[in-house]
Write a structure and sequence with these properties.
single chain, mainly alpha, 3-stranded antiparallel beta sheet, 71% helix, elongated
């Protein structure tokens, strides 16, 4: 099985070599074998880095990924672990989406401002907030 340099793995996954060294330092990636002082990774390490990168793009933190790895190393089935993590992350993203939609509505309302001064804006916005709270 051919071994890959840190630069080759980083390029393949789309991260910096410093990211791989960091992953090793925090225990997300096992220490690479050294040849003449240079890191050499096997395909399993490449797959592991690709999984970490994929999970990060899905919104998982490094702590969540480490927790998943630890649970998997204790024999827990990855399918159950991913399902549980994904359900929690999905609910979290739903809350973020709601907040983003509310922010977008507020930005639109602000962009329609016809007030003569900021005090007037404050009055209008306070009334809008009170009306919204009364509807809830």
């Amino acid at each position: 099985m051919p071994e890959l340099t840190i630069t080759a793995v980083a390029r393949e996954v789309g991260v910096r070599p410093s990211t791989l060294r960091y992953y090793e330092r925090i225990g997300l990636l096992p220490a690479a074998r050294r040849v003449a002082g240079r890191r050499r990774y096997d395909v399993c390490a490449l797959n592991q880095v690709q999984l970490i990168a994929y999970a990060k793009r899905a919104g998982f933190s490094l702590a969540q990924i480490r927790s998943l790895q630890e649970s998997a190393s204790l024999g827990d089935a990855p399918t159950v672990l991913w399902r549980d993590l994904a359900a929690r992350k999905s609910a979290e993203l739903d809350r973020v989406i709601v907040r983003a939609q509310e922010s977008k509505q507020r930005l639109f309302a602000l962009s329609q401002c016809r007030c003569r001064n900021l005090a007037e804006c404050g009055d209008i916005l306070r009334n809008e907030v009170e009306n919204t709270q009364n509807l809830a």
